[in-house]
């Protein structure tokens, strides 16, 4: 790969989490993960509304990306240091929902270190990363999927999750995601909808980068679960779905493999999430 990455961290260059998130195109998974994270109204309140993130959303996302980069690509000591800070902040971050959201009434208490909320954040990252890789880079074997989720479980433990708080297998992860999407926990609030469209899908970019942003948004919207897409009020139809499918195969089979290493791989793969 095109990285000069340390091998003294929690992961090596052979780790699936590095291999997958070292691919430039997998950065597309970040926006999908963010929109799904914000669809959990309690997580949204706990990890966005309460932390001042809406005052400086892009600064918050950059700081979060640096934390995740450090865990995945950095040295163990640095990963321990940054996650200790995150755990300390989470342990002191408490509140109640200011208004009803979905099945949660106003006044519902939340804590940023609640394992259920943290699992949702972690799961959206892993689910989105695997999806984008399989769609645009290449299929993952059953063994690779399990190894990928094991890596994310390691990251989850660094953030304070116990092993028992997380699905034990990649199949368990997919089962958990399906249950969440079928259940009544997720609900895109008006605030989350505004954030998703205004911050995630319409970031400030130079005019010359607008076509790339539109392409990235097209892919992000298309890869969202149908329920989440509807709740955000994002348009989609069978024609767009067909275009998305048709574009994935050439990218996976010809475009991505043909890219030079300096374009295909990233030295500092920026992930985004509400952490």
Give a verbal description of the structure.
- This protein has 275 residues and is mainly α.
- The protein has one domain.
- Helices cover 60% and strands 2% of the residues.
- A two-stranded antiparallel sheet has the order 1-2.
- α2 packs antiparallel against α6, α4 crosses α5 and α6 runs antiparallel to α7.
- The relative contact order is 0.20.
- The N terminus is likely disordered.
Short description:
With 275 residues, the chain is mainly alpha-helical. The protein has helices at 16-21, 29-38, 41-49, 57-73, 76-91, 115-136, 142-158, 170-182, 190-200, 210-223, 226-231, 238-258, 261-264; strands at residues 94-96, 109-111.
Question: What labels would you give this structure?
Answer:
275 residues; mainly alpha; two-stranded antiparallel sheet; 13 helices; 60% helix; 2% strand; disordered N terminus
What fraction of the residues are assigned to beta strands by DSSP? under 5%
Major sheet attributes: 2 strands, antiparallel
- The number of helices is 13
Which regions contain 5 or more consecutive residues with pLDDT less than 50? 1-6
Tell me the structural class.
Answer: mainly alpha
Round the mean pLDDT to the nearest integer and report it. Answer: 86
Tally of domains: 1
> How much is the radius of gyration in Å?
18 Å
